[in-house]
Write a structure and sequence with these properties.
single chain; 328 residues; alpha/beta; TIM Barrel; eight-stranded parallel beta sheet; 15 helices; 8 strands; 45% helix; binds 2'-deoxyinosine; binds zinc ion; metal-binding; zinc ion binding
Length: 328
């Protein structure tokens, strides 16, 4: 499984920081953290087995974000994420983060985005992997803040930034509020992916597609309980960015036996497989592929199909897509 060529479309930067790096940056930048022992930090950032909800899961991001407030740290963390990914033969990764979580020490939104792109570029120069950035707006933030992110990221479109996303806690019918933000983003040329149907119903998936023009949906697992949402995803060929372990941890899905990825796939829905958060969920992509493949007896041909669908789901250019196709 480690050797299989892989693509990852849904991976949060702040949820994927190496525990040792949290310590190294804290020491370097004189940031107070609860412990300087790697095992303690790992334990603190990792979600507990008895996590009951997405909101509880989201509490795990406070600690890593403490050490993501300088250009150097952002660049290092982005570099290391690609370094970790290429070790398991990930050829292409779309890295997402919410720029406004990194302004505590005075960095501008543009500096934040530039720093992450710099880290990705550095890794691309050394390793056989490519990456792009997705900018996340948090649903707890205002429309003005969302527009700030869209404006700041504009000059990076197709120069490192490829899409806009809405993340954070999920209320029913959140899409309406953010329509001005996502409309502006689409006008500027951002692709759109939206976290939806994770902690709330398939109605949010319907809204993300119909109101916001989402071409991909983060998670979307709840469409299994709403025919209208399911049919819309299928007929519009919307790609689902599925993240099994994260979905079990946040209780988006009650039982792994009911994980709908393979049913979706067999019915012609375009599924992709992702980690969501490597450190918070304590996994890598190999782990997720292994889990799903063993559980549902997925064979090599099916893997190839999912991989090729995932190539089409990327927000990359044609050259990158052709390059990715050459590995399978
Ligand atoms: O799975 C998720 N659903 C909703 N929001 C999430 C998920 N994983 C991470 N986030 C949030 C917490 C991070 O601080 C933010 C930006 O990466 O995105
Ligand atoms: Zn996510």
């Amino acid at each position: 499984m480690r050797k299989l060529p892989k693509i990852e479309l849904h991976c949060h930067l702040d949820g994927s920081v190496r525990p040792q790096t949290i310590i190294d940056i804290a020491k370097r930048e004189n940031i107070e953290i609860p412990s300087y022992k790697e095992s303690d930090i790992k334990e603190l950032v990792m979600v507990k087995k008895d996590c009951t909800s997405l909101n509880e899961y989201l509490e795990k991001f406070d600690l890593p974000n403490k050490v993501m407030q300088s250009k150097e740290s952002l660049k290092q963390i982005a570099f290391e994420l690609l370094e970790d990914a290429q070790r398991e033969n990930v050829k292409y990764i779309e890295v997402r983060f919410a720029p406004l979580l990194h302004t505590n020490k005075g960095l501008s939104v543009e500096e934040i985005i530039q720093s992450v792109i710099d880290g990705i570029k550095e890794a691309q120069n050394i390793y056989d992997i490519k990456g792009n950035v997705i900018l996340s707006c948090l649903r707890t933030m205002s429309v003005e803040d969302g527009l700030k992110v869209v404006e700041a990221g504009k000059k990076f479109i197709n120069k490192g930034v490829v899409a806009i996303d809405l993340a954070g806690c999920e209320e029913e019918r959140f899409c309406n509020k953010f329509k001005p933000v996502i409309d502006k983003a689409r006008e500027y040329g951002y692709n759109v992916t939206i976290h939806a149907g994770e902690a709330a119903s398939g109605q949010n998936v319907i809204d993300a597609i119909n109101l916001l023009g989402a071409k991909r949906i983060g998670h979307g697992v709840r469409i299994k309980d709403m025919k209208e949402a399911y049919d819309l995803v299928k007929s519009n060929k919307v790609y689902l960015e599925m993240c099994p372990t994260s979905n079990i941890q946040t209780k988006a899905i009650d039982d792994f036996n009911n994980y709908p990825l393979y049913d979706f796939y067999k019915d012609g829905i375009y599924v992709t497989l992702n980690t969501d958060n490597r450190t918070v969920s304590n996994i890598d992509l190999t782990n997720e592929i292994d889990l799903i493949f063993r559980k549902f007896n997925i064979n090599k041909i099916e893997y190839k199909n999912i991989y090729l669908n995932t190539v089409e789901a990327t927000f990359s250019d044609e050259e990158t897509k052709n390059w990715l196709k050459s590995f399978i």
